[in-house]
Amino acid sequence: xxxxxxxxxxxxxxxxxxxxxxxxxxxxxxxxxxxxxxxxxxxxxxxxxxxxxxxxxxxxxxxxxxx
Length: 67
Description:
The protein is mainly α and 67 residues long. It contains 5 helices and no strands. α1 (2-13) crosses α4.
């Protein structure tokens, strides 16, 4: 299920840059990323991809233990 949802969200966000990162944080964690998180996300996406980034947010402690 997580892979499917990460892929679905990634398809909507690909190519959106920082706006996509903000949208991912809002949809997954219900908050905006700070500047440090945005920079880290951009670096991560350049090395991996959007689906991996979305999956990482869904696997984060903040997502698992809040929701």
